Each structure stands twice: as structure tokens, then as C-alpha cells.
Amino acid sequence: MVFLEQFIAIAGHTFLECVRQPITLIVVVAATLLVFLSNQFAAFTMSDDQRMFVDLGLSTIFMAGALLAAFLATSVIDREIHNRTVLTVVSKPVARATFIVGKYGGVLLALLAAIALPAMAFFLVEVHGVMQTAATPVGWPCVIFGVAATAITIGAATWCNFFYGRSFGAVAIMLGGPLLLIAYALSLLFDPQWNLIEISKEFRLELWAAVLLMAMALAVLTAIAIGVSTRFGQVTTIGITLGALILGLLSDWIIGRKVHDLEQSAAVREAAGTAATLSDQVLLTAAEAAYSVVPNFQVFWVIDAVNQGQSIPLEYTVRVLGYGALMVTAALALAIALFQRREVG
Questions:
Q1: Where in the sequence is the domain holding 78, given as residue range(s)?
Q2: pLDDT value, residue 33
Q3: Are 102 and 18 in contact (CB under 8 A)?
Q4: This prediction's pTM
Q5: Residues 172, 153: contact at Cβ < 8 Å?
């Protein structure tokens, strides 16, 4: 019970601290604008404009989330250590493990709230569709509902900032996502001529599954960033976090392919009755260990399957979510171990 109270207090404070940071609003606004622009960029393809928009839009959201994960993790861990404000927490009866887990929870909630805004904008634009020609009708329900949600968000954030001194960015981030979700839900009810239609005609469950898995990948990346920030500064944390992302995206090609080749060689030797050498066994064990330890971010990226019209099986989604949860647990365990002996005084 004490752990839960401490966790909620630390996570809540961290969440508010993260959404109030200017970098959060800057990244969110930039990602949202790029999502809208992706609709225009996708129209220049010779075919499959909608597929191109899905690729561009979700890639933009994912990279924005990856940058925020590194920036926010550094600001809540490394800055507090250097400013020694962390002493006010760990000097009290608060375990360092609770501090790390609480910080991770706050950063993750802020990250999900931040990417929810461009994600909802993506879904709204996806319902509208890419305008391939000048004769393509404008989806006025999407436009009107989206503009109304944006105007209400900006107006409410300005009002709260001017009259109540609230952070403009925090209000905009926490309000923009839900309002755009409402705009998206309303746009599913109408066609471009404002005729009522069935929601199932425009609703794409596989896209929601893709975004869910992408959010899980960002949760893993956030845990890695939290662990790195316990020992390194902002620049190093951002570099290592993005490096881990790139390595994870290429793990199948770099490590998985090596494991496959070594396993095939071992199978050929076994079929020929020849024993594998000690060096081959060591190399295979090391490659398998590296393949297990390095997060495979490619399993979270199912956009290619979605664009090919394939459904995302529920079993696959559950397995990948479980894999992500294990990776988050391992990264947080490493973060706690690194922070236990970190000098904060």
C-alpha cells in the first residue's frame, strides 16, 4: 500500500513535469503537422497513395515518440541528479526502486498522452483519405470536426493559461487527444456528402492494433532510456536510446541471420555425423544470447502486413505485448540496479 501511494505520487508529479516541458509541445505540434502534410506528400505517388500515407504517418508518430522518450527520460532522472533535487525523495523512506518505477510510469503516461494527439490526427486524416485528384471530393465531416477539435483545444489552452496560469502545452496535450478522438468517432458516421453510414465501413481495426503495438515498442524504448539516463547525460542518453532503436530494428538482419546460418551449419554437420567445433558452439551460444537480449523492434512494426490487407491475429498481438512487457521488466530491473549505487549527494 505504501509502495502504491509513493508510486502514484512520483508518477503524477513526473507526468505533470513532462507535459509542461516546451520540448513536449514542440515535438507534438511538429509531429501533428507532419501527419497532416503526409496526406499531401502521399498524393504524389503513381499508385497506392493511401498505403504511402499510412507508412509516412505512423513512421512520423513513432519517431516523435522515440525522441520524446529520450528527452523526457533524461529530464526527469539526469537533471534531478545534477540539481540534487533527487535527495528530497531518496532521503525520505522511498526506495530507489520505487523512485525509478514511479519515474518510468510518469514518463510513459506523458509519452502516451503526447503521441495520442498526432495519432488521433492520423486516424482522422486516414478516414478522410488521400486526395489523389482535384476531382476527389473533400471529406467535409473530417475537416469540420477536426478543425473544431483543434480550435477548442487551442482556445481552452489559451484560456487556462491566461486566466488561471496553467501551462498551455500541458492543457493542449491532455485535451487535444480526447477531442480529436471524438472528432474521429463522429467522422466515422458520415460520408463526404453528410449521409449517415455504418461505422464498420471506415473503421480499420488492424490500424488500431498496429498503433497499440507501436505504443508497446515506445514503452520498451522508454524503459531503456530511463536505464541509460541513470548513468549518462542528455546527449549520451539520446544517442544510446536511438542506437538501441536502430539495432533493434536491424536485429533480424544483423543477429538473427547469423543465428540462422550457424544453426543450419550445425544441422548439416549433425546430418553428416561430424561434431561441431568448440568455436562454432561458443559463437552460436553468443549469437543466440545477443538475439534474446537485444529488443527486436521489428516484431512491433506490422504496418507492412496492414498495407498488404492482412489481418493482425489476436494471438500475435498478445504474444508481442507479452514480449514487450518482459523487455520493459528487464530494462527497469537493469535501471534499478544501475541507480542503486549511483551517487546522488
A1: 2-340
A2: 92
A3: no
A4: 0.90
A5: yes
